[in-house]
Amino acid sequence: MNEKIVMTADGYDRIDGRNAYQSDIKKLTLGAPVLEKNKKMQIAAQIWKENTSGQLEMDTELPIHQVFDLMIFLSRVLLYFREAYRLPLLYDPEHPAVERVGIQGDVMSVGVCTENPNINEDIRAFSQALNDLGEINGERLRVLTRILEEMEYC
């Protein structure tokens, strides 16, 4: 266990989307990094799973800025798919770039992965999956929006 944990969200297995009450992810934590590759960062997020002997062990660790980057990336993708239905293939093969998001003096390029040989089928399945997850994602987006508004970032 990480002695440097500062914040914990126990019982994550009860709210883990469609895996709720069956998830092997038991808790989320924030604190000092555990993994050597993240030691340069001051704060990391950890995902803890229960191993076969019933003990919790860290499964994944991300520096906190990468968690935000994933949230930015996902949010931009969700916005894109709100309007993608207007395009016959759900994207424009001639212009697959969605947006260049400025972060830390450079950009995160968000776009459709045209290197995927099955992109036409996969993007439809992805869009349908986003649709199917609408209630689960919508609830989380509403909570996140409320919290960001409380923080006065919206």
Question: Can you offer a commentary on this structure?
Answer:
The protein has helices spanning 64-83, 119-132, 134-150; strands at 5-10, 25-31, 44-50, 56-63, 97-103, 106-111. By secondary structure, the chain is α+β, with helices and mostly antiparallel strands. Strands 1-2-3-4 form a four-stranded antiparallel beta sheet. A two-stranded antiparallel ribbon has the order 5-6. The protein is globular. The two termini are 36 Å apart.
In short, what is this structure?
It contains 3 helices and 6 strands. The protein has helices spanning 64-83, 119-132, 134-150, and strands at 5-10, 25-31, 44-50, 56-63, 97-103, 106-111. The longest helix has 20 residues, at 64-83.
List the topology elements.
Blueprint: E1 5-10, E2 25-31, E3 44-50, E4 56-63, H1 64-83, E5 97-103, E6 106-111, H2 119-132, H3 134-150
Antiparallel strand pairs: 1-2, 2-3, 3-4, 5-6
Shape: globular
> Strand-and-helix sequence, N→C?
EEEEHEEHH
- Main sheet record: 4 strands, antiparallel
Q: What's the helical proportion of residues?
A: 25-40%
Total helices: the number is 3
Instruction: State the total count of DSSP E strands.
Output: 6
Q: Report the uncertain regions.
A: none
How much β-strand is present in the residues?
25-35%
Average pLDDT over all residues: 93
Q: Helix- and strand-based class?
A: alpha+beta
Question: For the CA atoms, what is the radius of gyration?
Answer: 18 Å
For the record, give the distance between the C-alpha atoms at the N and C termini, rounded to a whole number.
36 Å
